[in-house]
Specification:
234 residues, alpha/beta, 6 strands
Length: 234
């Protein structure tokens, strides 16, 4: 079975998708890398949104590149097993069986993660927050127009909704590394639980152990997830 990660900008989906793929011995597919291939842009995926943001958004304006991205990801998901996908829409558009995972992360924590993740650029914390907002709004509008779901509020499709907002309290690498180290085992255990289809008692146990991190597991809501602004969903 495959696993599809999703989340807003700088939620940590790329970091944890890569970690999980390595831990499980799965292949890894990055939607950003596929998009850059479609757009024929020679830039590393980790630097693309910092260095070529305006160029990428302009090239995606008519939706054709996004439609091609969805087509390629669906084709890959249908032809592969044991693959972790780092993507926006695949969790919504792919048919079963697939484990669908959303990482919930509030705006302040995502701005901090964006700041820490920079390699060549040096955006300020407010600039990182603005970049996350702009990118998320663009992606939300595109997915709502093309696929009919709201990236900020719709969580019904996900088997797992996990939260890491509280794990990176300051914008420095040491704190980020501690947050990643704390969150990675939660991701691993929750995904393994769904891959192995355990007794419901095991899902209850995981929810109790990781009360702050597990919002939903196995399509059971344990508390109110939040929208893109960190507010409780109605």
């Amino acid at each position: 079975m495959n696993v599809a990660f999703a989340g807003l900008t700088a939620a940590g989906k790329t970091t944890h998708a890569r970690l999980l793929a390595r831990e499980l011995g799965y292949d890894y597919v990055s939607a950003t890398e596929v998009m850059l291939e479609i757009l024929r842009l020679d830039v590393a995926a980790g630097d693309a949104w910092f260095q070529r943001y305006d160029e990428i958004q302009a090239a995606r304006e008519d939706g054709a590149a996004d439609d091609e991205l969805d087509r390629r990801l669906l084709e890959l998901a249908a032809s592969r097993q044991r693959t972790v996908f780092d993507t926006w829409a695949l969790a919504w558009i792919a048919p079963d069986p697939i484990v669908r995972l959303w990482i919930e992360s509030d705006p302040a924590s995502r701005a901090r993660k964006c700041l820490v993740s920079q390699t060549r650029t040096r955006l300020s914390l407010p600039a990182c927050a603005a970049l996350c907002r702009e990118k998320d709004e663009h992606t939300r509008d595109s997915l709502h127009r093309r696929r009919g779901f709201d990236l900020f509020t719709d969580r019904d499709r996900y088997d797992l909704v996990l939260c890491n907002s509280h794990l990176i309290a300051t914008a420095d690498r040491a704190c980020a590394q501690r947050g990643i180290a704390t969150f990675a085992p939660v991701v691993h255990q929750a995904v393994i639980a769904l891959l192995e289809r355990p007794h419901p008692d095991e899902l209850d146990r995981l929810t109790e152990v990781y009360l702050a991190e597990i919002i939903r597991i196995g399509r059971r809501v344990s508390c109110e997830p939040s929208d893109g602004g960190g507010r409780a969903m109605p």
